[in-house]
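Thread: Newbie trying to understand structure tokens

Hi all, I'm a second-year student working on a class project, and my supervisor (Dr. K.) asked me to get a predicted structure for one chain before our next meeting. I've only ever worked with sequences, so writing a 3D structure as a token string is new to me. If someone could post the tokens and maybe explain what I'm looking at, I'd be very grateful. Here's the chain:
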Amino acid sequence: MDYKKIKKPAIEEFSLLPKIINGGIAGIIGVSVVFPLDLVKTRLQNQPDGEKRMYKSMFDCFRKTYSSEGYFGMYRGSAVNILLITPEKAIKLAANDLFRHHLSVGAGVQLPLGREMLAGASAGLCQIIITTPMELLKIQMQDAGRVAALAIAEGRVVEKASATKLALGLLKEKGIFGLYKGIGATMLRDVSFSAVYFPLFARLNQLGPRKKNSNEAVFWWSFISGCLSGSIAALSVNPFDVVKTRLQAITKVDMPGQVKYNGIVDTFEKTYKNEGVKAFFKGGACRAIVIAPLFGIAQTVYYLGVAENLLSFIH
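---
Reply by user tm_fold:
Sure, no problem. This is what the structure looks like when written as tokens:
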């Protein structure tokens, strides 16, 4: 048999630039819509259990935050998040497609589950260089309101925080590595999340109706697939998110009920010892509600091909 004449399955062409642009646009729109929910999730995860709990539920946290800090208080920390979400989502979505492209066994051939998970996990690993400082500053800004309210209740005064002040303080104290506090926990969460999310989305997205004369799913099915995949993946890795959030939160040892954490294992052990298994699912429902529309919107915008249309006008 002449093996030279046997053709390998065709691999579709891959254009990276439009995918990066689409990922950035998708991230900005998605995070702007769901940010207040993300703030509530952070505050619920950071408060310790006990009689002095500030927030009784998700809705109680919404009400008290809006009452004490107003509408713009719900977007505390959003500036740095919106600024960095562009490269973060661009890397995450485009990298997954890039890895899937290189792991492909041929055009139109279903990528094996193991390769899908590898592509997703690799994309999650790539994004942490942006995600870690973004999440660190966002979480500390989001949690600043809770810390200030606790201080006021105790008759103390806390200096008003800003993303710039926090970033400069971390840089001055620990250098550039100060912005990467909790990178191990961020990697643990993002790699596992992406390994679950992307294969699940790809398979759900294939089940829906297609666009006319196209193999792509209609936009509303991509939205539904993104919502379902995002919520399932978010709940499955919520314990890692709780650990990451606590490692990156503002730590004041003089505050009542405040626990200082030193690393991933220490955070797991202290959280379990002090609060039990249920603590690892704090903010889980809220996180699922945040992630579902965030990724539903992101995937819809990503697949609408806004960048392709913009670039076609330029050329």
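A couple of things are worth pointing out once you decode it. Confidence is low (pLDDT under 50) at residues 1-11. DSSP finds eleven helices and no strands in the chain. Feel free to ask follow-ups in this thread.
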